[in-house]
Amino acid sequence: MKVLAASSVAHPNIALAKYWGKRAIPGNYPAVPSLSVTLDGMATRTTLRFDPRLTEDRFILGNELVLGRPLERITKLVDEVRSEAGFTTRASIVSANDFPTASGLASSASGFAALALAAVTAAGLEWSPARISDLARRASASAGRSIYGGYVRLDAGPLAGDGSQELAAEPVAPASAFPMKVVVCVTHEGAKAVASTDGMIRTMQTSPFYERWLSYGVENEQALREALLANDFARVGQLAEASALAMHASALACGVSYFNGATLEIMKQLRLLREVGLQVYGTIDAGPHVKVLVRPDQEPIVTPKLRAITGVVRTIVATPGGEPRVERIEASA
Ligand code: DP6
Predict the structure, then answer these.
(1) What is the dihedral of CA 73, 76, 81, 84, to 10 degrees?
(2) Residue 3 has what pLDDT?
(3) Which atom number of ligand 1 is nearest to the Cα of residue 30?
């Protein structure tokens, strides 16, 4: 049987302990460990078809042909699969997110995870989830984590080497082990100003706080993982908020700012809500939106309060879950 095409589904994830910064070796290895939660309900669906008629890879995202840097990153990932499978046939890739690309949910994480799964399957390779995670991580480190559902850890990469060493994410706990809701507070419709890769490279090269961020990131991830496994919601929330603030402090110190006025207003309101007994904690990625971590029983009280904050355009309530899967395989005899 020769496999030709495969369709896959993968879900976005949000880092509770953030990755920010890369090792100084090839291979896109993170400089700090990270711990994330993969989300249910939102998905990227990707169909990849190897097509001998094509002379270049072709990428369509949400009905639009995409060229330039995103296409180059895709071709690089598929090239690794082609070289392992021993052929050079180009691929057509059709992908769609069922959540808005600019919603502040990392579409690159679910996008490259879905792509890695579809490419490996369509090439007829039988790779372990760890190997697929390593492939996705090389394209975008956060994507390595979307190869698993629930709570997932990605270690920091090696300090030295030629980039060939495997580094895969690993599951830490199933979604059911730590009940939580994530309320995404969207504060701006439209693309972000500085892509995360560019923002972190500038931080690595010019931030006076980068070295401290690296040591803090290690401590924070370990403490957060322990709190998660001990089912301590308040401590997980505090450490997640602290991780985001430390990451943004290191970026802000060299002029990389992702905040808008609403970002800061939401963080202030979360402090006030905690004073009246609600367990709410914010985390912020490379964009102005705030993702609020809340206990499931408090979510119905909290979401209307978040929606009422000036500058919140809309909210999306997400739940941990989200194993990726292959939905369809097409093969010739
Ligand atoms: C702030 O995974 O998008 O979301 O590896 O360069 O593609 P590249 O970066 P990416 O960075 C994610 C940064 C973050 C934190 C996180 O998800 O850990």
Answers:
(1) -160
(2) 72
(3) 5
Q: State how far the Cα of 88 lies from the Cα of 180, in Å rounded to an integer.
A: 45
- Write out pLDDT tens, residues 20-53: 999 999 999 999 999 999 999 899 999 999 999 9
- Per-residue tokens: 126: 């039988």
- 49 within 8 A of 4, measured Cβ to Cβ: yes
Most ligand 1 atoms within 8 A of CB, residue of 14, 19, 36 to mutate = 19
CATH of the domain at 6: 3.30.230.10
Domain extent, residue 222, equals: 181-320
Residue-wise pLDDT for 94-119, tens only, equals 999 998 766 667 779 999 999 999 99
Cut 0.90: pTM above it: yes
Checking if the pLDDT of 267 tops 90, the result is: yes
Same domain, 37 and 103: yes
Backbone phi and psi for residue 176, each to the nearest 5 degrees, phi listed first = -70, -20
Tens of pLDDT, residue by residue over 130-164, are 999 999 999 999 999 999 999 999 999 999 999 99
Atom number, ligand 1, closest to the C-alpha of residue 34: 18
- Assigned token pair, 202: 């500038």
Residue type, 231: N
Residue 310: partners with Cβ closer than 8 Å, 6 or more residues away: 262, 265
Q: Rounded to an integer, what is the distance from CA 114 to the centroid of its chain?
A: 12
Report the domain count for the chain: 2
